[in-house]
Amino acid sequence: MRLLPATRGIVLLFLALGLAALLNAQGLRKDAESRQGAGRGIALAATRPLARLSEFLYLDRPRRELQLAIGREGEDRIDTRVTFRLPPPAGPLPNRPAAPTKPAKAHRRPLFTPAHPLRVWVAGDSLVEVPGEALVRATGRHGPVDILGVESRLSTGLGQPAVYNWFTRIAQAIPQLHPKVAVLSFGADDAHDYLGGMPAGKTVGKLGSPSWNAEYRRRVDGVTRELNAARVYVVWIGLPIPAGPGFRRSFPVVNSALRLVAARHPHGSAYIDTWDLLASKQGKYTDYLRNAQGELVLMRARDGVHYLPSAGDLIARAILRRLDHIYDLRS
Amino acid sequence: MLFPTPTFAIFLLVVLPLSWALMSRQRAWRPFMLLASYVFYAWWDWKFVFLLASSTIVNHVLAVAIYRAANARLRRGYLFVAVAFDLGLLGYFKYAGFFVSSAENFLANIGIAGASSVVHVALPVGISFYTFMAISYVVDTYRGELEPASFPRFAVFLSFFPHLVAGPIVRASELLPQLEKPRDPRRVDTTRAYYLILTGLFLKVVIANHLATHLVDDVFAAPKEHSSLETLVAIYGYAVQIFADFCGYTNIAIGVALLLGFQFPQNFNAPYTAVSLQDFWRRWHMTLSRWLRDYLYIPLGGNRKGRLLTYRNLLGTMLLGGLWHGAAWTFVAWGGIHGAGLALERLRGDVRKALGHADPPDTRWRRVIGRLVTFHVVCFGWIFFRADSFGRAWDVITQLVSAWGQPSPLVTTSVVLAIVVGIGSQYVPLASIGAALRGFQRLAVPVQAACLGVGLMLVDTLGPPGVAPFIYFRF
């Protein structure tokens, strides 16, 4: 191969990346939405005019046509609406649970059998994947519980509908999948100072501030009430104890909102506490815990946040125990 | 910082012109490249930069001590300290939890209960790769094959960002001479660089990520819930996924290095066209294979100490090679399968020789059968590599035979196409690629930029949303 001057390579890099940025401008614009911290403002400021220029030059068309051809149309759409069909509850949500979080036991538990299985939909961010897969393993193909699917979307949550609008998706999933139970895991990507999808003119304070907490609880509560209204029981998987000190401060804020909302809807929702479930006896973070067979096994991924399958098995067991409490599950 | 991200694109847009601008002034270029590489590394976790810096300082000091040592005993002593330091770092950060938990489980099995005492140790990205490079540097110095480089040159060698987190494992004798004098700005292999970067991105973002998210992850997470056909295709799918993931990463790394004016060794050469396991290991992760050969297999005695010891050395090298990939017994089993396979191939040759039989003729059919058998042995090994436990690996194996005729919704056209492209790409003749690159080189710069820009758009649009990390980052 003929060797060329470095300047040619540099010019080519600038031109190629410039053109690629214009062709992918809508995707970059959406990617900017998912950023946190100081980088977010810069990314948004850079991608907004880029997206406009791309549209003006019709350079957004090839990507859009390609997405249409492969059945992924609308992937770049930024939908920031946080809408609920039901009217908001009267008065603000309480800051403390009014009653213990122990689920209310139904007098007569609805019966589910392999012929008429309990339809369970599992959805959330990357943290839902492993417990979801563990539920698939634990329930089997011919049991009284039918896992309809595990929808895991990386770096999403209830805090940034622009990245992926779970409010829209949950509203769609109810008539599409007819679940009886929704197992949801959100929050790891929400535990930041920024909350997207705020009504115009309204802002929230930093993570953990009263306004942030109230807005996040409003969203969790809204999702719970929408699902409950469709007769779907909601299981909220809490965030696990993390290795890093930053997450150890931020995750409890999210967990507190999930726990409060679950306590507010004792007949329609439950909270699975993975913090304590995956903590050591001393209440500290640990990579290794004993599994059901009593073996000491690696539970957590190297990032100190995500689960490994053995942790998924523990969480799935906790979820199934809770469901067993609510429903009469017969093999 | 991950390669297929806008952040890395911006990083490269800054680093590439500055690198060439400073290239003629090496005193400025080396600190600049060191800083750029440390920024690249610190993007994950800035604290581990100190570990990389410590490894650089200790290995440099000991390499110089080895070189200047007055007698062989002292040299051996310094070498021992250097290798113990490097393996100690690797052992602590990568294997501490694994060994402690294995010991606790063993003691529990024989009735000695112990308190869980496994501490959390975060794994620094790329530690396996730069530790192996550091070991090769001190060993080569000890062997007299290398003179220690100046500290700035060695620091750039160890931390040079294109290879820093997932290889290829570049030898000091390959990279240090290139760091000695400024690279010639008039002679850069730009065409091959962009070809490698674009194909690398396509392999990783489109092929590997698609197979992982649409088939492999689901099947390996719950094998019992999938049909035999899905299981079989998922095994083939994982074979292609791991190739596309890792070859994709190293293609990008080699391409970026070329743009900066540096040559890295090739790391993959169509591994699924291999006609035997020995051939496979000459084509798969070639820089690791030769590292294991030169710093483990040969020092163990290689094939110089009789047949039985040769088999033992092959098995031992591959078992340790398996453990290098991950702190789990399933990786050791994977290494064991390859080690046993290599030993059996050797045994077959030895028996043939002992019986006075000539080597069989190299016919087309023999090669086809050799490729099929090798590919399937490699796929069998991948089951243990991918499964998170022996139980899950066994589930995958039993599911291969017990669930035929069941619906297979995960075996879609796009999944089959990705597998066919992943394997088929390895059979494309090099002459065709060369002709295409020469054609590309003749195009005007704006047309070339248009081709690359459209290529990047295709990669970004066809790949699943989100940026999945490279598999080999874990190693």
Order of helices and strands of chain B: HHHHHHHHHHHHHHHHHH
Please provide the count of β strands of chain B.
0
**Biggest β-sheet strands, sense, barrel of chain A:** 5 strands, parallel
Placed side by side, the strands forming the largest sheet of chain A appear as 3-2-4-5-6
Quaternary structure of the protein: heterodimer
Termini distance of chain B? 16 Å
What is the structure about, briefly put?
With 331 residues, chain A is of the alpha/beta class. In chain A, 42% of the residues lie in helices and 12% in strands.
Tell me about this structure.
The complex is a heterodimer of chains A (331) and B (475). By secondary structure, chain A is of the alpha/beta class. Chain A is built from ten helices and nine strands. Chain A has helices at residues 6-23, 25-33, 38-56, 61-69, 129-139, 166-177, 210-229, 245-264, 274-277, 309-326; strands at 111-112, 118-124, 145-152, 181-185, 233-237, 269-272, 288-290, 296-298, 328-329. In chain A, the strands form three sheets. Chain A has a five-stranded parallel sheet. In chain A, strand 7 and strand 8 (296-298) form a beta hairpin. In chain A, helix 2 packs antiparallel against helix 3 (38-56). By secondary structure, chain B is mainly alpha-helical. Chain B has 18 helices and no strands. The radius of gyration of chain B is 23 Å and the shape is globular. The mean pLDDT of chain B is 90. The chains are: A alpha/beta (331), B mainly alpha (475). At the A-B interface, helix 1, helix 2, helix 4, helix 5 and strand 7 of A face helix 1, helix 4, helix 8, helix 17 and helix 18 of B.
